[in-house]
Task: inverse folding
């Protein structure tokens, strides 16, 4: 500290020599000013904190010492000379290119030994560290508050050591219904129901957080309106420091909807598992690569595999070896283009069980998207029993057809006996006459004898023809079905008959109205017999200068054949008896053609009937079932 001598510098007083050493020990910057506000003395701390460019500040006016804020300091000093003692708020002198330094000023008068005010004393305390700490604390609190209020979906709050709320964010307001003003200062017990408060649960949770550093659990909490909600809670212990006090931080998240959805998902999963265990159809779900993702209980029973044996493996393992290449090609095309020709269609395929046996099954597939991936679900029905039953049914139908023929023959027995009796009696008479002639030995009778024997031969052939027709009708006849093109089948059937009809100027043709018809599964010979029989009848009805057409039309579930002629048609009184045996208008016919046609068509699962042709004439119509074609695009 620099002290002047009383005789050398104006404004100096003798007792400053005594006060100087004492003031130097004070840890603050001190300056004394006289009544004219000229500096009388400064201590060493002052010189270090407020260096004076001109050298010794003693004797200088305060305006020379403080170029910035002089008016404010002058006012402080004048108040002190007037006898006032006070302290100012912290302030930082604006010093260019220097770190901001904060000071708190203490001002008061200084007196002589007589008590007279001789000037003012200015004590400047450096509070920079305190102010920086305060500012950091404010910034931290502001940032924390900003974070807390913007934590969407979370309720955040700060608790002191006793569990009282010190910070309450807007998320806590939204979740609990308690406003910040209502929550601040309360212990956080208001978030618990009365029963838990009585049991001391809030304090127990705080104690666990204090002892372990954190407490977390899924618990019940109560809103302001009394409604309970499920929440994930975490209470963390906060150790205090110079900036923040000790306490706890609590985070609440409402998981009521989440738990409901989880329970619903679990329930749906259990329900789906139960459905999968009970549905009769086998369900196999694969991914886009063809790997098995799901294998139901019915699928296990159908294929003989357990689910764990097939999960993650290619679905082609459920197919015969001959179908796997086609399946792989189809899946490759599906992955590239996303196009499927079989989606939603039910098809008949052949599967292979674990033991290597093959069996027919119906497959219907559907596409599903879930969990960000595309999947294919296949529903399968084992057709083994159904087709075995169908085969048995067809066998029974053939048996019934056979029995029907035998039954009909019981009715026809007398007629057949009559038909056979005439030629046989004629043969007997002729042979007996021939025997008598031979006994007489008359040469003139030899020519008569030769003619009689010729008549006997003709009558014998007639009886044999009747018996042959009868045998064919009664024959049971097994069906040998093959895939045939409908139009080609009809064209081949009428080829020779149409050629002969041209000589009578009768046009005979086949019309296929639907392009690209699918094949049908039939006994080719028997169906051609039906077509030929109907065409022959039509040609005989037209007689000459007419037209006979076999029209083939593909319908959704059946193939329709219509034989149309331009003849006179059939009288209404005969229509009901057309398909009865021995109902004929032909002089040489037996009336068995149409009944045989009906038996063949019904054995194929079809129907035959008569209807008048639109432009006159007759139309005989029969239908055959469409063949459920087995696709090559095996799944």
Result:
């Amino acid at each position: 500290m620099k002290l002047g001598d009383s005789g050398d510098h104006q404004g100096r007083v003798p007792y400053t020599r005594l006060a100087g050493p004492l003031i130097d020990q004070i840890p603050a910057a001190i300056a004394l000013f006289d009544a004219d506000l000229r500096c009388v003395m400064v201590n060493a701390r002052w010189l270090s904190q407020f260096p004076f460019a001109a050298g010794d500040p003693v004797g200088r006016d305060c305006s020379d010492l403080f170029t910035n804020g002089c008016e404010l300091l002058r006012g402080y000093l004048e108040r002190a000379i007037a006898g006032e003692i006070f302290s100012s708020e912290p302030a930082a002198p604006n010093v260019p290119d220097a770190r901001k330094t904060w000071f708190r000023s203490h001002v008061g008068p200084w007196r002589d030994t007589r008590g007279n005010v001789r000037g003012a004393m200015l004590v400047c305390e450096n509070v920079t560290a305190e102010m920086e700490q305060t500012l950091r604390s404010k910034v931290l609190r502001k940032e924390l508050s900003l974070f807390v209020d913007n934590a969407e979906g979370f309720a955040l709050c700060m608790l002191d050591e006793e569990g009282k709320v010190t910070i309450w964010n807007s998320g806590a307001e939204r979740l609990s219904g308690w406003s910040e003003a209502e929550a601040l200062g309360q212990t956080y017990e208001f978030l618990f129901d009365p029963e838990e408060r009585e049991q001391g649960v809030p304090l127990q949770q705080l104690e666990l957080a204090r002892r372990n550093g954190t407490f977390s659990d899924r618990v019940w909490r109560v809103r302001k309106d009394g409604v309970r909600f499920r929440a994930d809670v975490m209470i963390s212990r906060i150790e205090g420091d110079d900036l923040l006090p000790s306490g706890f931080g609590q985070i609440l998240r409402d998981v009521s909807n989440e738990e409901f959805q989880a329970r619903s998902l679990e329930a749906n999963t259990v329900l789906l598992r139960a459905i999968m265990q009970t549905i009769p159809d086998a369900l196999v779900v694969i991914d886009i690569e063809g790997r098995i993702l799901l294998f139901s209980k019915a699928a296990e029973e159908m294929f003989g595999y357990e689910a764990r044996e097939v999960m993650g493996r290619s679905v082609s393992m459920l197919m015969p070896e001959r179908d796997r290449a086609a399946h792989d090609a189809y899946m490759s095309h599906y992955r590239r283009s996303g196009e499927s020709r079989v989606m939603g269609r039910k098809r008949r395929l052949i599967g292979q069980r674990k033991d290597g046996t093959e069996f027919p099954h119906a497959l219907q597939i559907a596409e599903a998207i879930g969990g960000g991936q595309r999947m294919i679900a296949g529903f399968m029905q084992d057709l083994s029993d159904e087709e075995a039953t169908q085969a048995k049914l067809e066998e029974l139908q053939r048996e019934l057809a056979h029995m029907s023929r035998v039954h009909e023959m019981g009715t026809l027995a007398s007629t057949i006996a009559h038909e056979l009796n005439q030629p046989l009696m004629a043969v007997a008479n002729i042979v007996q006459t021939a025997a008598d002639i031979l006994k007489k030995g008359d040469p003139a009778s030899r020519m008569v004898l030769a003619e009689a024997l010729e008549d006997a031969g003709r009558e014998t052939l007639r009886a044999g023809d009747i018996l042959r027709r009868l045998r064919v009708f009664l024959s049971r006849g097994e069906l040998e079905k093959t895939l045939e093109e409908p139009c080609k089948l009809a064209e081949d059937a009428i080829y020779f008959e149409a050629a002969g009809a041209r000589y009578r100027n009768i046009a005979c043709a086949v019309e296929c109205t639907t392009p690209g018809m699918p094949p049908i599964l039939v006994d080719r010979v028997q169906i051609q017999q039906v077509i030929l029989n109907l065409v022959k009848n039509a040609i005989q009805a037209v007689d000459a200068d007419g037209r006979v057409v076999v029209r083939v039309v593909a319908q959704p579930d059946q193939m329709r054949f219509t034989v149309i002629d331009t003849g006179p048609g059939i009288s209404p009184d005969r229509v009901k008896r057309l398909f009865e045996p021995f109902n004929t208008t032909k002089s040489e016919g037996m009336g068995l053609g149409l009944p045989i046609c009906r038996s063949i068509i019904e054995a194929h699962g079809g129907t035959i009937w008569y209807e008048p042709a639109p432009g006159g004439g007759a139309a005989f119509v029969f239908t055959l079932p469409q063949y459920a074609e087995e696709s090559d695009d095996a799944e």
User: Anything to note?
Assistant: The chain has a mean pLDDT of 77. The longest strand covers residues 358-370.
